[in-house]
Each structure stands twice: as C-alpha cells, then as structure tokens.
Amino acid sequence: MSGRYLVHTFGCQMNAHDSDRMEEVLRGHGWRAAETPAEADLIVLNTCSVREKAEQKLRSEVGKLAPLKRENPGLVLAVAGCVAQQEGEKLLERVRHLDLVIGPDNIADLPALVLDQMAGAPPRAHTVFDLDAPRFLAAAPARGSTSTPVSAFVTTMKGCDERCSFCIVPYTRGPERYRPATEIVDEIARWVEAGSREVTLLGQTVDSYRDPSLPPPASSDPDESQFPALLRAIAERVPGLGRLRYTSPHPRHATAALAEAHAELDVLARHVHMPAQSGSDRILKRMIRRYTRVEYVERVRRLAAARPGITLSTDIIVGFPGETDADFEATLDLVREVGFVSLFGFKYSPRPYTPALKLEDDVPEAVKSERLARLFEVAEAQTRAHLDRLVGTTQRVLVEGASKTAGRVSGRTEQNEIVHLDAGDLDLTGAVVEVAIVRAYKHSLFAEMTPAARDALAAAPRPSAPRAPRRRRALTLLS
Ligand code: SAH
Ligand code: F3S
Question: Which terminal residue of the chain has fewer beta carbons within 10 Å of its beta carbon, N or C?
C-alpha cells in the first residue's frame, strides 16, 4: 500500500537534503509526489529549530492542515527534522492531529512507519540516533533526468561535537558521525554522471571530517582532520566535476593543510563561508567557539592567500548575552577587517537545552534589531563595493537555470556571485560560460557573453534539457 506524499521543508540546506532523501525513500516504495495537499495521503513537515520559534510554528502549520484530515481521515501527518528529534514522544501529546514523529536518522524507516499508520496503528515517535552503525542514505540521481540539479549537495558527516553555547544542533543532530570517503566519492561520481557540474559537501563542521574506514587518528587534534585528503580524493577520482564547494567549516579545523588543498586543487571554488559569530574575544569565549579573533583572522587569511581571488563570507550573531556596545563594535570591526563579501546575520535567540540558557538574555530586543541593521548596513556596503569592482571583468559562470526574467538565465561565478545574462533561445543550463560583467545590482551582477563564448556555443550547440535549479525547495504548500 502506498499513495501520494508532500514534503514541506523548513530551515537549512541539511534539511532540504534530508527532504530529498525522504522523497527518494518514499518513491522507492511506490509512492508518488502529490501536486496539492488535498490529494496527499502523507504530509511530512520537515522542521527546523536552529533559530525559529519552532514549536509554535509547527503548531500553526499543523493547525492549517487539520481541516484536510477531516476530509480525508486516512491522511497521515508526520513531523521530521530537528523539532521531531528534540521533542520526540512529547510532540504527540502537545500537537493535536499528529500521527508520526520521525528523527533525521530514521528516514529509511519512514515508509514502514507510514504503512503502520495507514493500517490503524496508534501515533508513534521514532527518534533514535544511529550511533553504532551510522546510516547515510545514498542519493540516487538518474542519468539524463530533468530533475538532476546543476549543483548537487552531498553529505559527508552528520551531527556536531562542538558545543557552541547558543546552538541546538548537537542536541537535535547528535554526535559527529562520518561517511566513508569511498561512499562520498562514489556519490559525487554518480551526480556527475547524471549531469551535475558542481557539488557542495555538507556537514555541520564539514572540515572536521575523518574517514571512518581508516584507523582512528592518534588524537582529536584539529590537525588530524582528514578533510583535505577527502578533497584531494574527490579531485583525483571525479575528474569530470566542474566545481567543488563545502559548507560550513569551523575555524578550528581550518588548518594549513586545508589552505594547501585550496592552493593545489583547481576544482575548489574560490569562495569560503566561515562562520565567525562575533569579533569580540569575550563573547567568543562565552559562545564556546574555541578560537580568538586573532586566530580567526589568521586562519581565514591563510585560506584566502592560498589562491588569488578567494572571497569570504560568514555568519554573525548579534545580541548574545552580555554583548556590550564595545563587543558589537569589535564585530563590525572584524567584518571590515576581513572584508567579507557577504554575511548572514542573526539576532541571538535562546534555544532549549543549550548552555547559553544559563546566561541572562539581557540585550533588549530593540538593541538587537538596531545592531542587526547596522551589521547589514556595513555588510551591504562591502557587498556593493565588491560587486562594483567586478564590473568590467571577465568571469566564468556556471549556468544553473532560467532566471525570473524571460530569456535570461542565471548562475554563479567561481567566487559565488549570482550572475544574470541574456541567453536568447540558447539552453545554457549546466554550461560554463565566459561572460563580461556589465552591471552590478544590490546582490547580483548582470553580464554579457563574451564573443569567444558566443562563437564556441554557435559551433557546438547544446542539447536542450531543462533541469532543476540549484536550491530545489520542496513544494511550498502552506505559506
Ligand atoms: N555548523 C552549522 C551551523 C548551524 S546553525 C552550519 O554548518 O551551518 C547556522 C547559524 O545559525 C550559525 O552559524 C549561527 O550563526 C546561527 N545560530 C545558531 N544558533 C543560534 C541562536 N540560538 N540564535 C541566533 N543565531 C543562531
Ligand atoms: Fe552549532 Fe557550533 Fe556545531 S554552531 S552546529 S554547535 S559548530
């Protein structure tokens, strides 16, 4: 017995990736995607609790779906992701109409659990970490499929062994478990074979990677990370891969060996996203980030110097408990000093189970908002200046698909800037096109193909094969 499913994704790339695996597992058991919530027999809400008022939001989403249950009493409503893992059984008591609560490590069991529900089993929570035998569901890209993304995501590890005091992830995703390097390489080879050109390696501290098929390293010293070796293995064994990115590294593991990998491997994109969180040593200490500002700067400088043109972006939290004006100024100063070309900024919000709950959330909301606005002002000026500097340069853009404007496509440079260009009636999706940047917008660039690129394309027209865009989101059915 199967039916039609809908998976609705909240939160980060990791969640989007988990949603894709859920859909694959369901399709493997004969399920098909529903076009609308009304025709679904299973609706999965894949939740995020990193920054959102997660449970409140879940409650309201489930509330919106409840009428569907009245019309179709057989409908199974499931909650997956971080909120599911965090609250488990308790969610079934607190949120009415829920049938199933399933943790990120239990995705493979989803079809069987749903079948039980359809057969009338009582509501069930299944949220066990697979500590002894970690499972990594392999993506199954189909060759030549229209759903093969130009840019694919590949998991290298799950969980996190850091204990940043503000962060719920170690509690919702468990301890670090790594995927064998051969599996990672094979999955990348399958994506490339199916038509993907770029891969982003995913992990909570992606650069702390260790190959579980090798003997354990002698110490937990960050220098023992086998991440640079993984990057080399990918470059060597998947020569058809156009670009390799990774997210997010932790500064503690950004070793000299990682910088050497950037210097040596052409396939590594010239952009690194390295979360800093704060520019004040006092706050970094309270955040338990385990580096000082000077160490952070040293590490990103070493990476940026490894190859000409490497750009940096970051994550910043404002209004962490005890953050004074001077601490915040130190953060702004760090943003200027490093010259980030873009950043994600967040207001601190207390998360259940985290060590920072012991600290008083003492920065008033209005001050947090003001600091965030100032942070964005500084960041946007830097983004703008960076994009302006690129006008007049030649870049290689990996085209990811059609843009919103008809006749235009968009893609990314090696450094990660978004570029729009007129494609006429050429299907450029998946092509690397040489372009001249003619204009800078607020967050992106406009370019024209160089004459050389036009000639090359005219000589070798590309077969038309529409494909999924880079960040394929699950259907938005609720908002
Ligand atoms: N290592 C992860 C980080 C997960 S959380 C990764 O790969 O991206 C993503 C970002 O959310 C963090 O870098 C941090 O800047 C922000 N964040 C996490 N917990 C937060 C909290 N309690 N309040 C505000 N921002 C938070
Ligand atoms: Fe969170 Fe810090 Fe790990 S931000 S995911 S605890 S590295």
Answer: C
Q: What is the pTM of this model?
A: 0.93
Statement to judge: residues 159 and 234 lie in one domain: yes
Whole-number Å distance between alpha carbons of 144 and 320: 48
* Structure tokens, 274: 């390295």
Please tell me the distance between residue 230's alpha carbon and the centre of ligand 1 in angstroms: 25
E strands within 186-291?
198-202, 243-247, 271-273
139 and 120 within one domain: no
- Note whether residue 215 is domain-resident: yes
- Measured in angstroms, how far is the CA atom of residue 457 from the centroid of ligand 2? 45
The DSSP string of 383-420 is: HHHHHHHHTT-EEEEEEEEE-SSTTEEEEE-TT--EEE
Kindly state whether residues 162 and 265 are assigned to the same domain. Answer: yes
Provide the domain count of the chain: 3
How do residues 240-251 score in pLDDT, each as one tens digit? 999 999 999 999
What span, in angstroms and rounded, lies between the C-alpha atoms of 382 and 334? 13
Rounded CA-CA distance 172/85 in Å is 6
Tell me how crowded residue 180 is: count the other CB atoms within 10 A of its CB.
Answer: 15
Report the separation in Å between the CA atom of 203 and the middle of ligand 2, taken as the mean of its atom positions. Answer: 10
Question: Side-chain half-sphere of 457: how many Cα atoms within 13 Å?
Answer: 22
Which residue, 69, 77, 74, 88, is CA-closest to 8?
A: 77
CATH number at 407 reads: 2.40.50.140
pLDDT digits 0-9 by tens, 370-426: 999 999 999 999 999 999 999 999 999 999 998 888 889 999 999 999 999 998 878
Domain-located, residue 363: no
Nearest CA to ligand 2 atom 1: 167
**Is residue 341 a contact partner of residue 390, using CB atoms and an 8 Å limit?**
no
Task: List the Cα angle 273/277/280 in 5-degree steps.
Answer: 130
Ligand 2, atom 7: closest residue by C-alpha: 162
Domain that holds residue 446: 391-459
Is there a domain that residue 333 lies in? no
